[in-house]
Write the C-alpha cells for this entry.
Amino acid sequence: MKLLKNHSLLLVLILFSGYGYIASCTHESLSPLPSAASNTPVITRGNAVLVPGSMIVGDSTQWKLDKAHCNVMWSTNYVGAAGLLTGRFNQFGMHDVTDAKMLNYVTAAQPLLDTSWAFNESDPTKTYFSGYVQINQSNTGEPGRDGGCNITTLGTVPIVAGTQNLTVTNIAKIRTTDVKFDPLSNDYIVTINLSWKGTLAAPLTKSIVGRLKYIPKTKVQFGTSAAYSVFGLQLKFQLNCRDFGITSTNVSDKIDIECNMNFNNK
C-alpha cells in the first residue's frame, strides 16, 4: 500500500513538472509581439533665421547666394511619351525684377544683387523669395538645339555675347505669395506666381504650388582657410508650358523645375 502511494505521488510530480515545461516552451520563450508601427511623421524644426543683408563680402552675418554651386534644372518627356529631355539655365538669380529693371545689362557678372529672399525656419510667414531665369540660356548640352529650335520654340531671342538679357522677351520670373509648413514632413508648401511671356503677346502670370526643402546650416572648413557656414534651399514645382503658348510636340505639356540654391556667409 505504501509503495502504491509513493508511485502515485511520483506520477503526480511528473505530470506537474511536464505541464510546467510545456507552459514555459509555449509562452515564456516566445518573443513579445512588436507594437504597431506608427505612421505619424517625426518632424523636427530649428529656429534658423537667414537673410542676405547687403551681401558685404567678409561679413559673416550676411548670407550670399553661391551661384557657382547652384543650378536651375528642367525636365520633360520627349514627345510627351518617351524618355526625358533635360537641361539647365546657365543664367539665373534671386532678385525681384520689376518692369523698370527688365533691361539688357552689358556685363558678364550678375546684373542684379541676389537679395530678394529670406528664410525663417520656425515661422514660414516670414519666408519669401523672388527669382528669375534667362530663357535663351537654356543648356541641354546640344548646341544645335540650344541656339536653334529652342530659341523659336520658347519665343525668345539668341544670346548676345557679354549681355545679360532680362527683357520681357527673355525672362521668366517667380515670386512667393504663401509659404507654410508641410504637415507630413520637414518641408514647406509654397505658392508662387510664375510670370513668363513664352510665345504669347504679353506675359502671363500663373499661380503654382511647389515644395521647398531646407538643407540646414552647417560649418565647413577646408585646409588652413577660415571656416564658414553654408545652407541650402531646394524648390521643386511643375508648370504647363501650353499655358504660355509653347506648341512644340517635342516636349510634354508638363515641365518639372528644380532649383537648388546654396548660400554661404563668407
